Amino acid sequence: MKKTAWMVLASLVLCAGSLSADTVETVFFRQDMAAANEVPPVEGATASARAIIAAHVRRNDAGEVVSGIVDFDIQYTFGEPVSITGLHIHDGLAEANGPVVINSGITSGSPVAAEGTGDLFYQVRAESGDALTALIGLLANPQNYYVNLHTTTFPGGIMRAQLARADKLVLRAILDPANEVPPVEGLDAAGSGSILILASRDEQGAVTGGTVSFDVSYSFPGPVTLTGLHIHPAPAGTNGPVAINTTLRSTDADAIDVTSGVVRRRIEVTSGPALDALRLIYSQPSEAYLNIHTTANTSGALRGQLQATSETSFQLAMSPANEVPPIEGLEASALAKVTVHVTRNTAGIVTSGTTLFDVIYQFPGSVEFRGFHIHSAAQGANGSVVIGSDLSSSNSVTDEDGVGNLFKIIDVGPANPGGVEALQSIVITPENQYLNLHTTVNTGGAIRGQLVSVPLPVPSIPSGGVVNAANAVGEAAASPGSLITIYGVYLARFTAAASADSNGLLPTNLAGAEVRIGSASAPLLYVSPLQINAQVPFDTAAGTQSVTVTTGGGVTAGESITVGTVSPAIFVVVKNADFSLATAANPVRAGDDLAIFATGLGAVSPAVASGQLAPPSPLSSTAVAATVTIGGVAAEVSSPTPVLAPGFAGVYQVNVRVAAGTPGGAQPLVLSIGGETSNSIAIAVE
Questions:
Q1: Domain range spanning residue 573?
Q2: Does the pLDDT value for residue 473 go beyond 60?
Q3: Where are the beta strands (DSSP E) in 377-458?
Q4: Can you give the pLDDT at residue 472?
Q5: Whether residue 346 is found in the same domain as residue 432
Q6: Alpha-carbon distance 560 to 463, whole Å?
Q7: CA-to-CA distance for 589 and 559, rounded, in angstroms?
Q8: Same-domain status, 535 and 442
């Protein structure tokens, strides 16, 4: 499916929350730099680079960008020694030159010597003037900007790339000797891996390449020498070839005679089997596995299938006044975003996680950071470190001007049971954890912020606050397997979007919130303080059912919803030819094939479990057929009955063809099934 349509459908199903205070976010851009992209092209230059630009953005409570920090992260290759004299972001379209708007700080007066391959990393501020204007423009229209690298020989630029947003994906793997094929007997070892992918896509949404970052923890009963860390394309129970190779070798310093530790590698994927594997990972992550090899177990010592994760994030303000006792006289502050990506077992218990720290800090001058941790304690008390970063007294970070960003990715797996327990607490009672940033001057903590500042009040659902997720009007607001939306206040402590567990099932507890429809727990897709999206369990009886929400603050009064056999409601309509949205700017014509994505179309066969993401094969179909009219004219239904849309829970797909004689202009599209009629979606007919 074309990326735009798929993302629109996903956003309609999940319904992202709104901003309520100053927030932090990081947006990545990834592109290949080449001499041929210069204007005019540079002839004969044997130079190339991979550019990753990270924009760490601060927004106010209206969602406006007020400042930012920009990272230049360049992996370059030159065929001869050069002196790099500039690295900038320019305002300009492809095949045109434009002015510098964000400057890394490299100059001809202070060049960087480069030979062969190497890395450049510079972090600069974009707080006002052209830089802030460019940052705002870059977020809105990245294709209007390019990154350029300059040398003494080519002062106008030796290679460049137009910018494009990267697609971020976080996956996990729990590593165990028992997962090897055949299992490794008698090895008391464990591990886990965090995989962060920044992928590039073409205009049709296909993945064209990616940067894959590995953060893999391991623990062995005694010293071993690591010989490899790879991703293999193959389902559980079978072996597959190496496809994405971290190039970890037995001669690497971090691989020789190790017992426990963390392996960190970053690999570029551009073509061949590695690109095929990357595309497989995006569509079906469980069809690939992560493997650690050692000299004792050359075929594999620890292995785990890749898993999608459930994402939960917290926005918090950090201050010296929050320390216990408060730090007097320190004019420092930070805004932080802490995101945890977790895996869960079938009971909904967290089994592992990836923690992303994203902090925009401001100190009065030069500062050395030597610690960056999540601690377990309520506001006003000190607690022990439960999830640490890689910062320490021996691995510190110094910022000369005191303003910048810290972005860290930390793996938390079975080898760290205290960290896994902390993750479980974070996704249920985050007010019991705080983030602390330590410096050489304030070793006990310089600035601190609670993940959630206050306990949650009692939740409440107003009258009429439970509706069909597609906002349909009809006697039956819900039906078995359909999606509903619950509106109210204090419905969750924080915003979280669910992902399926290793069995493809959505959780019934998310961000500490649980929904019951009648006597059954409902699978959850999305929760926030003001809104929850959930699926009605397939075994829910018809009639009036009570809906309640339970949080740490209490239980809502029951709000009634009418459950029917069907409750058809349309989310979106796209063209089947390219899966572009059917809009006024993209009208449909007689003979066009359309895909309608809806909810509430009833029971299916073969049956799927409540909260189960529909598999691509076999397709599950409804028991009865649907009819569709466009402008009052019956459309030709392409398949006898609707099917569950693969990769979604509670979403159905109906394929139709626009009939000859359908009137032109804005026309209502209506779906009917089982004697019930959906909401009307206006589409443009040409």
A1: 569-685
A2: no
A3: 385-388, 397-399, 403-412, 433-439, 447-450
A4: 54
A5: yes
A6: 9
A7: 44
A8: no
pLDDT given for residue 19 in this prediction: 40
Please report which helix (H) or strand (E) contains residue 134, including its range. Answer: helix 129-140
Measured CA to CA, the distance from residue 601 to residue 249 in angstroms comes to: 54
CATH classification at residue 192:
2.60.40
Residues 6+ apart with CB under 8 A from 310: 341, 342, 343, 344, 496, 497, 498, 499, 507, 510
Confidence check: pLDDT of 146 > 80: yes
Residue 62 amino acid letter: A
* Distance of alpha carbon 150 from alpha carbon 156, whole angstroms: 6
Distances in Å between the alpha carbon of 258 and those of 180, 387, 606?
21, 22, 50
The pLDDT assigned to 284 comes to 84
Residue 370 lies in a domain: yes
pLDDT-wise least confident of 240-244, 274-278, 308-312: 308-312
Please check whether residues 26 and 88 belong to one and the same domain. yes
Give the end of a domain, one of 305, 329, 358.
305
Task: Say yes or no to pLDDT of 9 above 80.
Answer: no
Q: Where are the alpha helices (DSSP H) in 342-475?
A: 417-426
What letter does residue 460 receive in the DSSP assignment?
B
pLDDT in tens, 538-584: 999 999 999 999 998 899 999 999 999 999 999 989 887 666 777 77
* Total domain count, the chain: 5
Helix (H), strand (E), coil (C) string for 181-226: CCCCCCCCCEEEEEEEEEEEECCCCCEEEEEEEEEEEEEEEEEECE
**Poorest-pLDDT segment among 174-183, 297-306, 395-404, 582-591:** 582-591
Find, among 224, 213, 235, 343, the residue nearest to 280 by Cα. 235
> Model confidence over 319-354: pLDDT tens digits?
999 999 999 999 999 999 999 999 887 777 889 999
458 lies in a domain? no
Verify that 247 and 287 share a domain, yes or no.
yes
CATH of the domain at 501: 2.60.40.10
Alpha carbon distances (Å) from 284 to 234, 345, 613: 11, 19, 12
Q: Are residues 585 and 545 in the same domain?
A: no
* Both tokens assigned to 625: 């057929």
Query: Are 215 and 262 a contacting pair, CB within 8 Å?
Result: yes
DSSP at 96: S
Q: Please indicate, yes or no, whether residues 176 and 225 belong to a single structural domain of this protein.
A: yes
Q: Note whether residue 478 is domain-resident.
A: yes
One domain for residues 12 and 153 = yes
Judgement on whether residues 496 and 602 belong to the same structural domain of the protein: no
Last residue of a domain, one of 547, 563, 579: 563
Q: Compute the distance between CA of residue 190 and CA of residue 243 in angstroms, rounded to an integer.
A: 23
More confident residue, 16 or 202: 202
- Domain annotation covers residue 670: yes
